Amino acid sequence: MFSRDFFFLSHQQQIEMNAVITGIAASIPDYILTNEELSQMVDTSDEWITTRVGIKERRILKGEAQGISVLASKAIAELLDKTNTKPDEVDAIVFATSTPDHPLPSTASIVAEQNHIKNAFCFDMAAACSGFIFGLEVCNGLIKTERYKKVILATGEKMSAIINYEDRNTCPLFGDAAAAVMIEPDEENVGIIDAILRTDGVGYKPLQVKAGGSKYPVTHETVDKKEHTLHQNGKVVFKYAVSNMTDVSLKIMERNNLTKDDVDWLVPHQANMRIIDAVIQRTGIPREKVMINIEKFGNTSAVTIPLCLWEWESKLRKGDNIILTAFGAGFTWGAVYMKWGYEGNKTKKI
Protein backbone atom coordinates (compact mmCIF):
# COMPACT_ATOMS: atom_id res chain seq x y z
CA MET A 1 0.00 0.00 0.00
CA PHE A 2 1.41 3.39 -1.02
CA SER A 3 1.92 6.03 1.62
CA ARG A 4 0.70 9.60 1.39
CA ASP A 5 4.31 10.72 1.06
CA PHE A 6 4.74 8.56 -2.05
CA PHE A 7 1.91 10.29 -3.85
CA PHE A 8 3.19 13.72 -2.76
CA LEU A 9 6.66 12.89 -4.09
CA SER A 10 5.27 11.60 -7.37
CA HIS A 11 3.27 14.80 -7.76
CA GLN A 12 6.33 16.92 -7.06
CA GLN A 13 8.39 15.00 -9.61
CA GLN A 14 5.72 15.53 -12.23
CA ILE A 15 5.64 19.27 -11.59
CA GLU A 16 9.42 19.55 -11.81
CA MET A 17 9.70 17.62 -15.07
CA ASN A 18 10.89 20.05 -17.73
CA ALA A 19 11.19 19.74 -21.48
CA VAL A 20 14.76 20.51 -22.47
CA ILE A 21 16.48 20.99 -25.81
CA THR A 22 19.16 18.31 -26.09
CA GLY A 23 20.37 19.04 -29.60
CA ILE A 24 19.94 21.44 -32.50
CA ALA A 25 20.62 21.35 -36.23
CA ALA A 26 19.88 23.58 -39.20
CA SER A 27 19.95 23.56 -42.98
CA ILE A 28 20.37 26.59 -45.23
CA PRO A 29 20.34 26.80 -49.04
CA ASP A 30 23.58 27.27 -50.94
CA TYR A 31 22.32 30.17 -53.03
CA ILE A 32 22.98 33.63 -51.56
CA LEU A 33 20.82 36.49 -52.81
CA THR A 34 22.69 39.71 -52.11
CA ASN A 35 21.37 43.25 -51.93
CA GLU A 36 23.31 44.06 -55.07
CA GLU A 37 21.51 41.34 -57.03
CA LEU A 38 18.15 42.41 -55.61
CA SER A 39 18.81 45.97 -56.78
CA GLN A 40 18.94 44.62 -60.33
CA MET A 41 15.51 43.00 -59.89
CA VAL A 42 13.59 45.79 -58.16
CA ASP A 43 13.98 49.50 -57.42
CA THR A 44 16.15 49.29 -54.32
CA SER A 45 19.79 49.50 -53.22
CA ASP A 46 22.18 48.00 -50.73
CA GLU A 47 22.19 51.28 -48.78
CA TRP A 48 18.36 51.47 -48.68
CA ILE A 49 17.98 47.86 -47.44
CA THR A 50 20.85 47.97 -44.94
CA THR A 51 19.73 51.28 -43.44
CA ARG A 52 16.09 50.29 -43.02
CA VAL A 53 16.22 46.61 -42.08
CA GLY A 54 19.86 45.68 -41.50
CA ILE A 55 19.97 42.84 -44.06
CA LYS A 56 22.90 42.32 -46.44
CA GLU A 57 21.99 38.91 -47.89
CA ARG A 58 19.56 36.01 -47.60
CA ARG A 59 19.54 32.33 -48.64
CA ILE A 60 17.16 31.12 -51.36
CA LEU A 61 16.15 27.53 -52.11
CA LYS A 62 16.44 27.11 -55.88
CA GLY A 63 15.33 24.35 -58.24
CA GLU A 64 12.20 22.60 -59.48
CA ALA A 65 9.93 20.84 -56.97
CA GLN A 66 12.10 21.93 -54.05
CA GLY A 67 9.73 22.28 -51.12
CA ILE A 68 10.72 23.20 -47.58
CA SER A 69 10.86 19.49 -46.75
CA VAL A 70 14.18 19.37 -48.63
CA LEU A 71 15.86 21.61 -46.05
CA ALA A 72 13.90 20.33 -43.05
CA SER A 73 14.70 16.69 -43.81
CA LYS A 74 18.41 17.51 -43.89
CA ALA A 75 18.17 19.32 -40.56
CA ILE A 76 16.35 16.38 -38.95
CA ALA A 77 18.86 13.86 -40.35
CA GLU A 78 21.73 15.87 -38.86
CA LEU A 79 19.86 16.21 -35.58
CA LEU A 80 19.35 12.44 -35.32
CA ASP A 81 23.05 11.89 -35.97
CA LYS A 82 24.14 14.64 -33.60
CA THR A 83 22.01 13.32 -30.72
CA ASN A 84 22.68 9.63 -31.47
CA THR A 85 18.95 9.05 -31.88
CA LYS A 86 17.54 6.17 -33.91
CA PRO A 87 14.52 6.98 -36.11
CA ASP A 88 12.30 4.48 -34.26
CA GLU A 89 13.03 6.27 -30.97
CA VAL A 90 11.27 9.48 -32.07
CA ASP A 91 7.81 9.78 -30.52
CA ALA A 92 6.52 12.92 -32.25
CA ILE A 93 7.38 15.58 -34.83
CA VAL A 94 5.87 19.04 -34.59
CA PHE A 95 6.58 21.06 -37.73
CA ALA A 96 6.12 24.85 -37.54
CA THR A 97 5.75 26.37 -40.99
CA SER A 98 3.74 28.85 -43.03
CA THR A 99 5.06 27.42 -46.31
CA PRO A 100 4.32 23.67 -46.29
CA ASP A 101 5.09 21.54 -49.33
CA HIS A 102 1.37 20.96 -49.94
CA PRO A 103 -1.99 21.91 -48.38
CA LEU A 104 -2.04 18.22 -47.47
CA PRO A 105 -0.47 15.95 -46.43
CA SER A 106 1.51 17.60 -43.66
CA THR A 107 5.15 18.40 -44.29
CA ALA A 108 5.83 16.74 -40.93
CA SER A 109 4.74 13.41 -42.43
CA ILE A 110 7.01 13.97 -45.44
CA VAL A 111 10.16 14.68 -43.41
CA ALA A 112 9.34 11.74 -41.14
CA GLU A 113 9.21 9.40 -44.13
CA GLN A 114 12.42 10.83 -45.55
CA ASN A 115 14.16 10.05 -42.26
CA HIS A 116 12.58 6.58 -41.78
CA ILE A 117 10.66 7.74 -38.70
CA LYS A 118 7.72 5.33 -38.39
CA ASN A 119 6.74 5.30 -34.68
CA ALA A 120 5.91 8.98 -34.30
CA PHE A 121 2.77 11.02 -34.72
CA CYS A 122 3.47 14.09 -36.83
CA PHE A 123 1.66 17.30 -37.62
CA ASP A 124 2.17 20.82 -38.95
CA MET A 125 1.32 23.97 -37.02
CA ALA A 126 1.04 27.52 -38.33
CA ALA A 127 1.85 30.47 -36.09
CA ALA A 128 3.89 32.43 -38.65
CA CYS A 129 7.07 33.96 -37.20
CA SER A 130 6.06 32.84 -33.69
CA GLY A 131 6.02 29.20 -34.78
CA PHE A 132 9.13 28.11 -32.89
CA ILE A 133 8.16 29.55 -29.51
CA PHE A 134 4.56 28.34 -29.89
CA GLY A 135 5.96 24.93 -30.85
CA LEU A 136 8.16 24.85 -27.76
CA GLU A 137 5.09 25.18 -25.56
CA VAL A 138 3.30 22.41 -27.49
CA CYS A 139 6.31 20.11 -27.13
CA ASN A 140 6.64 21.05 -23.47
CA GLY A 141 3.08 19.86 -22.96
CA LEU A 142 3.78 16.58 -24.74
CA ILE A 143 6.82 15.92 -22.57
CA LYS A 144 4.95 16.71 -19.37
CA THR A 145 2.39 13.96 -20.10
CA GLU A 146 5.34 11.55 -19.66
CA ARG A 147 4.11 9.56 -22.66
CA TYR A 148 6.65 11.11 -25.03
CA LYS A 149 10.39 10.94 -24.44
CA LYS A 150 11.87 12.22 -27.69
CA VAL A 151 10.04 14.98 -29.55
CA ILE A 152 11.41 16.81 -32.57
CA LEU A 153 10.36 20.41 -33.07
CA ALA A 154 11.17 21.32 -36.67
CA THR A 155 10.79 24.69 -38.32
CA GLY A 156 11.10 25.42 -42.00
CA GLU A 157 10.19 28.30 -44.27
CA LYS A 158 10.57 28.73 -48.01
CA MET A 159 9.57 32.38 -47.88
CA SER A 160 10.83 32.90 -51.43
CA ALA A 161 7.82 30.87 -52.60
CA ILE A 162 5.36 33.50 -51.32
CA ILE A 163 7.29 36.70 -52.01
CA ASN A 164 6.56 39.13 -54.82
CA TYR A 165 9.97 40.09 -56.18
CA GLU A 166 8.45 43.21 -57.72
CA ASP A 167 7.52 44.56 -54.28
CA ARG A 168 10.48 46.55 -52.95
CA ASN A 169 8.95 46.71 -49.46
CA THR A 170 8.81 42.95 -48.84
CA CYS A 171 11.23 41.14 -51.17
CA PRO A 172 14.41 42.37 -49.40
CA LEU A 173 13.23 41.03 -46.04
CA PHE A 174 12.85 37.29 -46.37
CA GLY A 175 14.98 34.19 -46.83
CA ASP A 176 14.71 30.40 -46.68
CA ALA A 177 16.00 28.02 -43.99
CA ALA A 178 15.07 25.11 -41.75
CA ALA A 179 16.04 23.98 -38.25
CA ALA A 180 15.21 21.21 -35.82
CA VAL A 181 15.65 20.64 -32.10
CA MET A 182 15.38 17.46 -30.03
CA ILE A 183 13.27 17.91 -26.92
CA GLU A 184 13.44 15.43 -24.04
CA PRO A 185 12.38 15.26 -20.38
CA ASP A 186 14.76 16.34 -17.64
CA GLU A 187 14.33 16.57 -13.87
CA GLU A 188 17.17 19.03 -13.41
CA ASN A 189 16.48 22.74 -13.21
CA VAL A 190 17.04 23.24 -16.94
CA GLY A 191 14.78 23.41 -19.96
CA ILE A 192 11.59 25.36 -20.58
CA ILE A 193 10.76 27.23 -17.39
CA ASP A 194 8.02 29.61 -18.43
CA ALA A 195 6.14 30.89 -21.48
CA ILE A 196 3.80 33.76 -22.27
CA LEU A 197 2.09 33.38 -25.65
CA ARG A 198 -0.57 35.60 -27.15
CA THR A 199 -2.71 36.09 -30.28
CA ASP A 200 -4.75 39.10 -31.33
CA GLY A 201 -6.85 38.79 -34.48
CA VAL A 202 -6.47 42.52 -35.14
CA GLY A 203 -3.49 41.42 -37.21
CA TYR A 204 -5.64 39.56 -39.74
CA LYS A 205 -5.23 42.06 -42.58
CA PRO A 206 -1.97 43.99 -41.94
CA LEU A 207 0.15 40.87 -42.55
CA GLN A 208 -1.24 38.11 -44.74
CA VAL A 209 -1.18 35.97 -47.85
CA LYS A 210 -4.72 36.59 -49.02
CA ALA A 211 -5.36 33.78 -51.51
CA GLY A 212 -4.72 30.06 -51.69
CA GLY A 213 -6.93 28.95 -48.80
CA SER A 214 -10.59 28.01 -48.67
CA LYS A 215 -11.79 31.64 -48.51
CA TYR A 216 -10.03 32.70 -51.71
CA PRO A 217 -9.19 29.56 -53.72
CA VAL A 218 -6.78 29.73 -56.64
CA THR A 219 -8.21 31.47 -59.71
CA HIS A 220 -6.72 33.31 -62.65
CA GLU A 221 -7.83 36.52 -60.96
CA THR A 222 -6.05 35.80 -57.66
CA VAL A 223 -2.89 34.87 -59.54
CA ASP A 224 -3.03 37.97 -61.73
CA LYS A 225 -3.49 40.15 -58.65
CA LYS A 226 -0.52 38.42 -56.95
CA GLU A 227 -2.73 37.57 -53.99
CA HIS A 228 -0.71 34.43 -53.32
CA THR A 229 2.23 36.50 -52.13
CA LEU A 230 2.87 38.17 -48.80
CA HIS A 231 1.46 41.64 -48.22
CA GLN A 232 2.06 43.72 -45.12
CA ASN A 233 1.43 47.13 -43.68
CA GLY A 234 4.94 47.78 -42.43
CA LYS A 235 4.11 50.66 -40.10
CA VAL A 236 1.37 48.74 -38.31
CA VAL A 237 3.49 45.58 -38.00
CA PHE A 238 6.47 47.56 -36.68
CA LYS A 239 4.39 49.27 -34.01
CA TYR A 240 2.80 46.07 -32.73
CA ALA A 241 6.03 44.05 -32.95
CA VAL A 242 8.11 46.48 -30.89
CA SER A 243 5.54 47.01 -28.15
CA ASN A 244 4.46 43.38 -27.81
CA MET A 245 7.90 41.75 -28.00
CA THR A 246 9.22 44.22 -25.44
CA ASP A 247 6.26 43.96 -23.08
CA VAL A 248 6.17 40.18 -23.03
CA SER A 249 9.95 39.93 -22.56
CA LEU A 250 9.84 42.29 -19.59
CA LYS A 251 6.83 40.49 -18.16
CA ILE A 252 8.44 37.06 -18.30
CA MET A 253 11.61 38.45 -16.73
CA GLU A 254 9.61 40.09 -13.95
CA ARG A 255 7.57 37.03 -13.01
CA ASN A 256 10.71 34.89 -12.92
CA ASN A 257 12.68 37.47 -10.89
CA LEU A 258 15.22 38.03 -13.66
CA THR A 259 17.06 41.30 -14.03
CA LYS A 260 18.84 42.29 -17.23
CA ASP A 261 22.05 41.10 -15.55
CA ASP A 262 20.57 37.65 -14.91
CA VAL A 263 19.75 37.11 -18.59
CA ASP A 264 22.64 35.42 -20.41
CA TRP A 265 21.07 35.62 -23.86
CA LEU A 266 18.16 37.39 -25.51
CA VAL A 267 17.12 35.77 -28.79
CA PRO A 268 14.69 38.06 -30.63
CA HIS A 269 12.93 37.16 -33.86
CA GLN A 270 15.07 38.45 -36.71
CA ALA A 271 12.43 40.47 -38.54
CA ASN A 272 13.97 43.90 -38.86
CA MET A 273 17.08 45.43 -37.29
CA ARG A 274 15.10 48.46 -36.15
CA ILE A 275 12.68 46.21 -34.27
CA ILE A 276 15.57 44.31 -32.67
CA ASP A 277 17.26 47.59 -31.65
CA ALA A 278 14.03 48.86 -30.09
CA VAL A 279 13.59 45.67 -28.06
CA ILE A 280 17.21 45.84 -26.89
CA GLN A 281 16.81 49.46 -25.81
CA ARG A 282 13.56 48.93 -23.94
CA THR A 283 14.58 45.73 -22.13
CA GLY A 284 17.99 47.15 -21.20
CA ILE A 285 19.73 43.87 -22.02
CA PRO A 286 23.29 44.61 -23.25
CA ARG A 287 23.74 44.18 -26.98
CA GLU A 288 26.58 41.70 -26.50
CA LYS A 289 24.03 39.35 -24.92
CA VAL A 290 21.69 39.53 -27.91
CA MET A 291 21.88 37.00 -30.75
CA ILE A 292 21.68 38.77 -34.13
CA ASN A 293 22.27 37.23 -37.55
CA ILE A 294 19.66 39.03 -39.65
CA GLU A 295 22.36 40.62 -41.81
CA LYS A 296 23.23 37.31 -43.50
CA PHE A 297 19.97 35.32 -43.34
CA GLY A 298 17.21 37.93 -43.40
CA ASN A 299 13.82 37.08 -41.94
CA THR A 300 13.29 33.31 -42.14
CA SER A 301 10.02 33.55 -40.19
CA ALA A 302 9.64 30.66 -37.70
CA VAL A 303 13.28 29.63 -38.26
CA THR A 304 15.04 32.80 -37.10
CA ILE A 305 15.25 31.90 -33.41
CA PRO A 306 16.51 28.30 -33.78
CA LEU A 307 18.89 29.52 -36.50
CA CYS A 308 20.42 31.88 -33.92
CA LEU A 309 20.63 29.13 -31.30
CA TRP A 310 22.32 26.86 -33.85
CA GLU A 311 24.89 29.51 -34.73
CA TRP A 312 25.61 30.36 -31.08
CA GLU A 313 25.48 26.75 -29.84
CA SER A 314 29.20 26.51 -29.10
CA LYS A 315 28.94 29.56 -26.82
CA LEU A 316 26.02 28.22 -24.78
CA ARG A 317 26.57 26.74 -21.35
CA LYS A 318 24.35 24.49 -19.29
CA GLY A 319 22.10 26.62 -17.11
CA ASP A 320 22.32 29.77 -19.23
CA ASN A 321 19.23 31.93 -18.79
CA ILE A 322 17.76 32.53 -22.26
CA ILE A 323 14.78 34.66 -23.28
CA LEU A 324 13.26 33.94 -26.69
CA THR A 325 10.76 36.41 -28.12
CA ALA A 326 8.93 36.62 -31.44
CA PHE A 327 6.12 38.37 -33.26
CA GLY A 328 4.28 37.23 -36.37
CA ALA A 329 1.15 37.26 -38.50
CA GLY A 330 -2.11 36.72 -36.75
CA PHE A 331 -0.96 38.71 -34.80
CA THR A 332 0.93 36.13 -32.76
CA TRP A 333 3.66 36.87 -30.25
CA GLY A 334 5.22 35.72 -27.03
CA ALA A 335 8.29 34.97 -24.97
CA VAL A 336 9.79 31.78 -23.59
CA TYR A 337 12.21 31.58 -20.68
CA MET A 338 14.49 28.57 -20.71
CA LYS A 339 17.65 27.38 -19.07
CA TRP A 340 19.98 25.85 -21.64
CA GLY A 341 20.38 22.12 -21.14
CA TYR A 342 23.93 21.21 -22.18
CA GLU A 343 27.46 22.46 -22.78
CA GLY A 344 27.44 23.70 -26.35
CA ASN A 345 31.21 23.58 -26.75
CA LYS A 346 31.20 19.81 -26.22
CA THR A 347 28.78 18.97 -29.02
CA LYS A 348 29.67 17.54 -32.39
CA LYS A 349 29.62 20.41 -34.87
CA ILE A 350 27.64 20.05 -38.07
Task: Present the secondary structure layout.
Elements: H1 4-16, E1 18-27, E2 31-34, H2 35-38, H3 46-53, E3 57-60, H4 69-82, E4 92-96, H5 107-114, E5 121-125, H6 131-144, E6 151-158, E7 176-186, E8 191-199, E9 207-209, H7 220-224, E10 230-232, H8 234-255, E11 265-268, H9 273-283, H10 294-297, H11 304-312, E12 321-328, E13 332-339
Helix pairs in contact: 4-5, 8-9
Spatial shape: globular
The ordered H/E elements are HEEHHEHEHEHEEEEHEHEHHHEE
Regions with little confidence, pLDDT below 50 for 5+ residues: none
Instruction: Specify Rg, calculated over alpha carbons.
Output: 20 Å
What would your notes on this structure say?
By secondary structure, this protein is α/β, with parallel strands linked by helices. It has two domains: 186 residues, Thiolase/Chalcone synthase (Peroxisomal Thiolase, Chain A, domain 1), CATH 3.40.47.10; 155 residues, Thiolase/Chalcone synthase (Peroxisomal Thiolase, Chain A, domain 1, 3-Layer(aba) Sandwich), CATH 3.40.47. 32% of the residues lie in helices and 23% in strands. It contains eleven helices and 13 strands. The strands form four sheets. A five-stranded mixed β-sheet has the order 1-7-6-4-5, sandwiched between helices. Helix 4 packs across helix 5 and helix 8 packs parallel to helix 9. The longest helix has 22 residues. The protein is globular. The N and C termini lie far apart (51 Å). The mean pLDDT is 94.
